[in-house]
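Q: Structure tokens for this one, please.
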Amino acid sequence: MSTAKWGKQQPRVLLSVLLTFILILMSACGSSNGDNGSNGNNADGAEGAAGKVTLTFWNGFTGPDGELLKTIVNDYNKANADKVEIKMDVMPWDQLNQKLPPAIATDTAPGLVAIIGGSATPFIRNDTFQDLSGFFEATGASKDDFKNGALELGVKEDKPYLLPMQMNGLYLFWNKTLFKNAGLDPEKAPATLEELTAYAEKLTDPAKNQYGFGVPVAGAAPYYASFIIGNGGNVVDLDTKKSVFDSPENTATFGWLQDLVVNKKVSPKGAAGADLEKMMMSGQLGMYINGPWMASGLKTGSVDFGVALPPKGSAAQFTELGGIGFAVPSGASDAEKQAAYDFINYWNSPEIVKKWSLANGFPPYIKSVVEDPEVQKDPLISAMANMGDAAKPFLPGLTTADRINNEVIFTAIEAVQNGQDVSEVLKQASGDIDELLMSEK
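A: Here is the predicted structure, written as tokens:
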């Protein structure tokens, strides 16, 4: 699928960007950036004789959702034929992340880019993406129209550097058939972590190689954020850039996770995300926390499933806010930026947000679409859209977020699953996080 999952996109380090830039200069490369021959803002971004702006748009929607995006862009171009023409350059997300830094450095970047929230962090930190605060005044759009934390995805010093294109949280998926067979209400998800534990035990049946709840140690979305934040803990103090991972709250949370896997055996020990997804789709796993992309696999496997926000912890209910946002690189002209504003406003109209959401299964974030009767009739979309105040970014603004997730927290989860002392694991992990955070200062 073309929508990237958490943990698969890591920002380019500064050294790599500098080396790439040097190689470009030495080899005297041309300014072509697009697989379809379209160029960056120095060429296509110029105004035509009649004042028409050609706006190059890079994105990573290479799958079926890309065809819908193409249709939407074509419709926009037809409606604005005398003002703006958008030329899309579509490439895999990892390729986009690699091409964008040298393109910005050589002033050959596009005027508009769609980028995964975590991958945008380095560009926001070094001001190679433009502040988009002027969007609301330029278009007349209202911040009050946006729900589910959509305007929090790419913020620095209270200013937006990303505007929403596609949003999501993480959700609890459950197998209704297994619930029914275990004597549980198939229409009711566990509301608390205590209920999650009780349900997971009832759903676990070793004789059938059936497990109650998936606890992956790698290759998965940061599901554990719902437990850490939900229980009143955290990972990093964003003001001081110091680890707060080794805390009593987190000790209790990771002790609970250890008990689930080691003692109660509700999840296969050492399983990766891909393994648990397969088990969920084959009917061997009762519950699993993942993103909206999980739904298509469950539908393909004819699994009767439900979806809800992750259960509430002792302090709060939390789901990690993720998504893809629109950004305008620093070299874009004022004319390109205004054209980008116009298209972003078109994209975030109720008609387009509804079309994209119903077609792709991602939750809408525009108030009128969330409340739309047709959306509310869709049990999957409506359940994912009603996130309330639970959806927030996890480790926002940190260029090391991916490394903290993948190299430290998942490693800690694997260690506690192997029976290591929770306090010692968190102490070591906290030190590792502080080492990574040195680059943030």
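A few notes: The first strand starts at residue 53 and ends at 59. Confidence is low (pLDDT under 50) at residues 1-46.
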